[in-house]
Amino acid sequence: MSNELEGAALAAYFDHTLLKPEATFSNIVKLCAEAKQHKFATVCVNPYWVAEAAEQLQGTGVGITTVIGFPLGASSSFTKIAETRDAIANGATEIDMVLNVGALKSGRFAAVEQDVRGVADACKGRAKLKVILEVGLLTDEEKVTASVICKRAGADFVKTSTGFGPGGATVKDIALMREAVGPEMGVKASGGVRDRETVLALIEAGATRIGASASVAIVNGGKGEGY
């Protein structure tokens, strides 16, 4: 694996991420410049910055990910769908929505599926949908249930964490989620991913996308801090 994933091949796994509330326009410009230089899959920014990032990255092949219902997942389906449509109109190519964790833990599985399906329908043919499970708040059984619901509802990926909740991406959780969704669906590891060794282990366990703010340090063989 280490010999196979070097340089651009490794960089292509990354959503280069900046979700801090204090991020400025100059920070977003820098993020986009780094994404262009290293050929990351996407940048991941808050909805306010989607149009700015789209302008910075036009014609580069780097996608634009944004977050919906972030970071709690407790907004209404109507709001999540409206956020999604607005983000896509502004240039988002991938949507990372937060699962309604409270509804899941209440056993309201039909409501959770409807929530995901509404956003999946808004994305259809226009953007990929990743659903953030916030695994640090879930039991293993709930992680599996949530993953299956997301697959059934039409999501393209399941994702571990927001980076703002407890815990983060682990090899165990990635393997569990991969087993639950099967080989075709995407699995994104995010939250506390800061070094190349961890990234390779997560990919080996079944991750097909990595969310990190330390992307540049990681692909350069170092260790970073942050999301």
UniProtKB/TrEMBL annotation:
Its main location: cytoplasm. Pathway: Carbohydrate degradation; 2-deoxy-D-ribose 1-phosphate degradation; D-glyceraldehyde 3-phosphate and acetaldehyde from 2-deoxy-alpha-D-ribose 1-phosphate: step 2/2. The active site is at D96 (proton donor/acceptor), K159 (schiff-base intermediate with acetaldehyde), K188 (proton donor/acceptor). Signal peptide: none annotated. Pfam families: DeoC. It is an enzyme of class 4 (lyase). InterPro entries: Aldolase_TIM (IPR013785), DeoC (IPR011343), DeoC/FbaB/LacD_aldolase (IPR002915), DeoC_typeI (IPR028581). SUPFAM superfamilies: Aldolase. It catalyses: 2-deoxy-D-ribose 5-phosphate = D-glyceraldehyde 3-phosphate + acetaldehyde. Keywords: Cytoplasm, Lyase, Schiff base. Gene3D superfamilies: Aldolase class I. It is found in: Cytoplasm. CDD domains: DeoC. Its EC number is 4.1.2.4. One of its GO terms (molecular function) is deoxyribose-phosphate aldolase activity. Belongs to the DeoC/FbaB aldolase family. DeoC type 1 subfamily. Catalyzes a reversible aldol reaction between acetaldehyde and D-glyceraldehyde 3-phosphate to generate 2-deoxy-D-ribose 5-phosphate. HAMAP family: DeoC_type1 (MF_00114). This is Deoxyribose-phosphate aldolase. It comes from Paenibacillus glycinis. The gene is deoC.
